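Protein record
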Amino acid sequence: MVQHYDILIIGGGVAGMSFALKMARTRKYRIALCCKTTLDEANTTKAQGGIASVTNLLKDDFSKHIHDTMVAGDWLSDPAAVEQVVRNAPKQIEELINWGVNFDKDADGNYDLHREGGHSEFRILHHADDTGAEIQRGLMEAVRHDPFISVLENHFAVEIITQHHLGMRVTHHTPDIECYGAYILNPQTRKVDTFLSRVTLMATGGTGAIYATTTNPDIATGDGIAMVHRARGVIKDMEFVQFHPTALFHPGETHPAYLITEAMRGYGGILRLPDGEEFMQKYDPRLSLAPRDIVARAIDNEMKIHGLDHVCLDVTHKNADETKQHFPNIYQKCLSIGIDITKDYIPVAPCAHYMCGGIKVNLDGESSIHRLYAVGECSCTGLHGGNRLASNSLIEAVVYADAAARHVTHVIENYGFNDRIPEWNDEGTMTNEEKVLISQDMREVGQIMSTYVGIVRSDLRLRRAWERLDLLYEETEDLFKRVRPTRDICELRNMINVGYLITRQARERKESRGLHYTLDYPRKSDHNTREVW
């Protein structure tokens, strides 16, 4: 079946939904918003801490937020991208509030701002400790009530459509690659439908699920990045995988591991060994409030030194009622496994959390493929550089969704539909034995990435990952050609593609920088605001 939409959005988190709402204001275009599960399962929902924006102008200003972002990114961030996000943040916060999103206020009616690692001021707006869920709720209500937006849940994008599907040989050096839409799997019919569009936006989120343990849900398999890579689009900075320092250590919960928000350290939480000894003073003068890459490596190092499977976060010295008020969900979650955070240490360990790289885009959110935009975690805007500053991701998504929407509004009338695109050939069958192989291969990808392409890397580890991923790639591509597409086989392909990109770009970076730390090129010392190892 062939469907026509002016705008096709693949992904339903804050990035995709805010772009959809902005484009729907024109009242001119048919918009399809496709997500592979339901709207409420997006990565956005898992974001606890908050959203960064300069709000208290008596103490904070744009230059401080810009400097904090550049420092956290190890001076690899694109200054123009940083300026764009920081200076446009307050306006986009207002936009979220107008869509019905609520942020906590204090007794005087001012926003109750948190401070998180790497931030020099209190500038994190939040809704208790489930800010992402609140943003997702507000946007979902607005999207579902907009008649110009068709929400297609449980629809899985298999490939984006380019000249390749017209028989043209497309390489990374082919000029003027264009996107005409996407092939999308309909779970009800089990058929791959052809969605033709004038403009396509990729907003598929992150890649955490390719690791054995992650704060991301199972759906974070890097689908958009993999599709654009296969379409010969430019992918950048994939070596910079952020490992959140403090996921709740609870064996059995790996996808997702429960996140202990950065705001808890901003609140005064102290990292300790299980015996109570502090250790962050050995790594950074900012102690537990150092940027995430520094804290994650410090914890990883302490765990290896002492043979531990976790360290601890301590808030027992804080007022118990205040702790429960600020972190009600974390309090209840820990209580459910026998930990009272007002009296007991919280066992924590690092795990895969956020992808700083992705589909390379310009300041308007345009990818290297014409008519294809990318917004949110699947994109590489240049904001994060070598490491994301806490709570900069949600604001990046809405700022770039706004930039993309403004750009699309000016150019969409130049584009038509390409009705010469052939429909998908869905010949083939899949046996139960093949399904077992797919699930086993998914687990193997997670083990390869966590073991060889984790917090600390080396040339040897990366080479082993490369060799094992290459074998899985050959086996999976051979299987994909023989069977009808299912979500499982497509996700496995994407996971292997993304693992390959992370490994390849990690091998190409011959230095320890930002989140990429390698034993073969150890950093000694650099900027005064970074660590000494």
Q: What stands out?
A: Confidence is low (pLDDT under 50) at residues 526-533. DSSP finds 13 helices and 16 strands in the chain. Residues 430 and 483 are 5 Å apart (CA to CA).
